[in-house]
Amino acid sequence: MTASTAPAAPLLEVRSVTKRFPGVTALSNVSLTLGTGEVLALIGENGAGKSTLMKILAGVQEPDEGELLIDGRAERVDSVQTAQRLGIALIHQELNLSDNLDVGANIFLGREPLKRGLIDRQKIREDSTELLKRVGLNVSPDTLVNRLPIGQQQLVEIARALSINARVLIMDEPTSSLSTHETERLFEVVKDLRHKGVSVIYISHRLGEVKELADRVTVFRDGRNAGDLSREEVSHDRMVQLMVGRDISEFYKRKPHNARDVVLQVEGLRTPAHPDHALSFSVRSGEIVGVAGLVGAGRTEMLNVLFGVDPAGAGTIRVGGKLCRMSSPRDAIAAGMALVPEDRKQQGLVLEMAVRTNIGLAGLKRHQKSGGFLNDAQEGRDSAAMIEKLRIKTPNERQVVQYLSGGNQQKVVLGKWLSMQPQVLLLDEPTRGIDIGAKQEIYSLMEDLAEQGVAILFVSSEMEEILGMSDRTLVMHEGRITGELQRDNLSEEAVMQLATGNVAAATAG
Amino acid sequence: MKKNLGILGLFFVVFIVTAIANPSFINAYNLENLIRRSSLYGIIGIGVSFVIITGGIDLSIGSVIGLVGCALPWLMITHEFPVAAAVPLVLLLALVIGLGHGLLITQLKLQPFVVTLCGLLFYRGFGRWLTSDATMGFGRDYEGLRKLAIGKIPLGELPFVGSFNLPVPFLILLVLAVIAAVFLNRTIYGRYLLALGRNEQAARFSGINTTVMVVLAYVICAVVAGFGGLLFALDSNSIQPASFGNFYELYAIAAAVLGGCSLRGGEGSIFGVMIGAAIMQLLYNSINLLGIPTTLEFAIIGAVILAGVITDELVKRIAAKRRAVLQARQAAGG
Fold first, then answer.
1. Prediction ipTM score
2. Can you give the pTM of this predicted structure?
3. CA of B199 to nearest chain A CA: how many angstroms apart?
4. pLDDT one-digit tens code per residue, B23-40
5. Domain membership of residue B263 as a residue range
6. How many domains is chain B partitioned into structurally?
7. In this structure, how many other beta carbons lie within 10 angstroms of the beta carbon of residue B29?
């Protein structure tokens, strides 16, 4: 479906916008057009300038040069209120909700309908219910937001944007925390909006989604326009080529793996979140096992129990044949395990500390000098080695980790664990929110580690990643493993069937 | 070290201004008192900084001082315990108090503010009950033990000052400060504390035993407070159970904050804490000697602490801005 026949003026036009910050030019002479009822995908590597342009459109920043035109009229978008008045709404990648309030309150935060001077809770409830239906979120508006999983919180954000009757909805990585099912629902919402004449600027690293949704694709590279593709021209390779500026063939390099002995053996494991189901599986040295499933399937919970973050209800964990009791991450580390957690900022890194300090954080006890003293020399060696091996982009090892890009932050987390030389590496959404170049590097790293004999168990919500990287795939649904797929019967449909609990259909097909 | 330049500078300015305005400021007697008081407050400041670094707080320090201050003479005088038994006993009491705080906070997940606030009330009440509110003291006895607090080491003639004797508490402070600084900056345990103060979850995920470290921090704080209480009691020799040590936690916390410990946790400088304690005592002294009405005492000290913290914040912002520019420049070049 293409946009309607050329209107008199595009709904939104960005003309030759330049934006400078101290020391760097974030945008240089970029242009973009958006028609009514059109979905425009904006893609590019991290640092390409997408976020900066979106902030300008949303009124958070103003351009140094260039113009913004709405319906052909030059407009000065000098504040968020102005942007909203013009019908532009931005949905952040990092959620902007007050999690101590309920869903209804969040949707109407700052714009509460009043009845006789007091907040009209009834109206909020009614209107919220309507909006929640539109985004397919089946919760009561009185639910506290902090009780909802991240995937559902994001849908609340979208409902909030819809409540201001936006004409242009800017979505920044909207599906990064959504399950496949929720993503599909989101696509339906986007298509519905398009049908009703609302336009969407869709920023995403997930090129598969872009291919499905976008009417047109604009590519940014290094703060400049790098190309435009119409729906017919869109292909995975073409998009990557424009984003990176060079040919990337074979995105997932697959080398045959020689899986050796079983390193991790799990039997009858029960997690506190799903105590009714027992999990049993094994991972071999040199094997990459993917864990697929919908949000809420219990995958992170399983990894957390394996790593000793949460207590196991029952069951056994054997590493290298030895029975291990994981009552804390210390035990797991001593057993030779490592976990790269889902939330790198809250769980993986101490943001205010240096790259070097973060890399050395897990090994402090192991490398200590007698008397409990820090082993600076070892820390320096590990830090230098990891920065080089993982190609961590940082001015130096003393750089505070907070200022690194998402991909480099993730590499620091990996560096911390790799310097411990684990036998078993657990990864929870290892490439979430990371640009293509860094993703590729992490996949290569996983391959290298598998070759060296590390057993890798990774949880991912990205179908491409699961299909591309796994030797075997475990699929979970509501706390239990519904099936295991080998490479030869691995397909998107098979995974989806198992992920939705349809065990029979998957085994039949 | 850079962080402390601000209050160090302030210290010298106030020092010099007072010395010029009132020369009796720099006579030996006054300086010795100043050093002695600064050292005592510096000691308890160092103790509380461990807790603040973990992101917690201890409001009971003053009451621990009060309790130890009464319990020591109660044991030694009223019940004729030998020194060798009484001193370890009161320190053990302080340790148990710290343990109690730490366990309530880590096992029951209670908030440090609440737990130590209850402690503040409870230990004060307990001390009063123990002694029936009677004023305690050591009389003329125990001169040897009292030397810990009031003893001095002659240093001979110093320029400007005259014949100067260094108070023993200063030496105690130095030893404690060195141990604390080494622990915090050169051992893995100090690194654990700093990491968990910034991000407890990430520290735990990295294999750090955050429970043990937090309990340790509260034990250190309480034992140091107890030791401080011992010294304050030996110094004053007149301990009123209802008021001894009242508000001292505020001085300790203020010293820590002035010295660069963020109440959010994860940072702190032992040297800074010492300067922080010294500056407050210096201000008290200066206000006195400069003829400023003592009614303004609290107002001035409160204002100075606020000014110190504001300056700190502004300096941090300018540094962050400069860093961002530098970074962006490097990112663009690289």
1. 0.88
2. 0.76
3. 6
4. 888 888 899 999 999 999
5. 2-333
6. 1
7. 12
